[in-house]
Write a structure and sequence with these properties.
Blueprint: H1 2-8, H2 13-18, H3 26-38, H4 41-98, H5 104-116, H6 122-139, H7 142-154, H8 158-179, H9 184-193, H10 198-212, H11 217-224, H12 229-241, H13 244-300
Helix pairs in contact: 3-4, 4-5, 4-8, 4-13, 5-13, 7-8, 8-9, 8-13, 9-10, 10-11, 11-12, 12-13
Amino acid sequence: MVISADVQQGSSLSEAMRKHPNCFDKLYISMVEAGETGGVLDEVLNRLSKLLEDMARLKNQVKSALAYPVAVGILAIIVFFAMTIFLIPIFAEIFLGLGVELPLLTQIMLNISAVVRSWRILIPIGSIIAVIFAVKQYYKTPVGRRQIDKFMLTAPLFGDLNEKNSVARFCRIFGTLTRSGVPILNTLEIVRDISGNQIIADAVESATTEIQQGGMLSVALEREKVFPLLAIQMISIGEETGELDAMMMKVADFYEDEVEQAVKALTSVIEPLMMVGIAGMVGVILLSMYLPMFKIFDELG
């Protein structure tokens, strides 16, 4: 409603959007402004809509890779606490009443159960909360942000997925902006600000400096050693043929497919590992409770 009032008063759509930075970021404003300048606002808005749909789809694919292990991890924690709080004490009373010598594994589980049911459980919980808080505070520092973002691109299992997701996001936004008529330096500034990863942002900043000095985007990105070699080669071909925007879209299509395949592969690996982990945890707890009973049966035999 406020934007409509601004437009009715003679402001352009981009000017009206710029007055409300909390609602519209540089991506929206720059594309609308380019559409107004070129007289193709309807086409640019369609591209913006398609871009947002592609980004949302890619984001949901990554979330789906994390949803299963998180859900199973929460289930594992619930099962562990339920067994240590309610099941193990019942067996403990039986063993104490019989006066049997407990195996080492059983004694360890009884000690864990005692800790979980006492105030001492607050120590590991408090430690975990303190570590999470410390990591968040460290991430707010320039050095910490770079180190953690770099780890996110190289972490086992999820590092490859994060890297492909970042490449696809960069190329999709870059290609859409340049195809809509946004100047390349403005495009790089926008991509840098919404990259979501400081390592990617630093690489884009380096590329901006390279282009300002008459260099090539592919050369700058290759020097930073952030993007895969295949993406660099395809971007270089786009620069040489004068079809950088089209090549960027092809790279985005390729790596979005790679993200989809990586999500499927990651899920296929994590699912059995998580199930084996839960089964192993439950098995160890049950085994620790039944070992003394086996010992009693042997003595009676």
